[in-house]
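User: I'll paste a sequence; please echo it back and then give the predicted structure.

Assistant: Echoing your sequence first, then the prediction.
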Amino acid sequence: MNPGTPAIKVEDLHKSFDQLEVLKGIDFEVGLGEVVCVVGPSGSGKSTLLRCINRLEEPTAGHIFIEGEDITDPDADVDMLRSKIGMVFQSFNLFPHLSVLRNLTIAQRRVRKRSTAEAKDVASRNLERVGLIEKIDAYPAHLSGGQQQRVAIARALSMEPDMMLFDEPTSALDPELVGEVLAVMRSLANEGMTMMVVTHEMGFAREVANRVVFMDDGVIVEEAAPKEFFGNPRSERLKTFLSQVL
């Protein structure tokens, strides 16, 4: 990959569900090592955009490039390109019948073809990163929501992705558990992980993002560095939104 190639590039992306047009021509990119937070009201298309980027949703039109390769090309090796992208969902999506260790090793062994020992080493290392190594033999039902989400982050990291997508990773959590998940995400950002984060945590966006993108009604209305975004919004729509959430 050329040094100047964006990690993610989206060109004229459209997505409709039957008659409902959810994305109405999105253009934007995420640079290597950049943290981009996407904010906006419910129903603005933020999560749909994220799900199109790793092809969980099929775009209606437009192109998405991952490290310069068109993931929307019919001939693209979607599984190979998708393996570069870690995804963390709003609901933790852990397998309830598997221990934390097995949650972290099952895809490593099946997709990355790692041995049991190697997969366990990688899992242990990533549980250390999220501060949960002591929970390696626990089952999801015995973990708090914040711990489950940190396990989900460790699981995504265990596939050694080049970039991470977060879809409202704290919105299902009790308020006192939000901080522990944001702390893990902050440390990933400090390590230089390329991240695209759909969030309503404005403090996190202000503090950690290189750039904040405001979506409304299926379009990108405004994007800027956090200081400019929060301190000097240009559009009336963004001013109204910020006055409601801050």
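The two ends are 40 Å apart (CA to CA). The longest strand covers residues 20-30.
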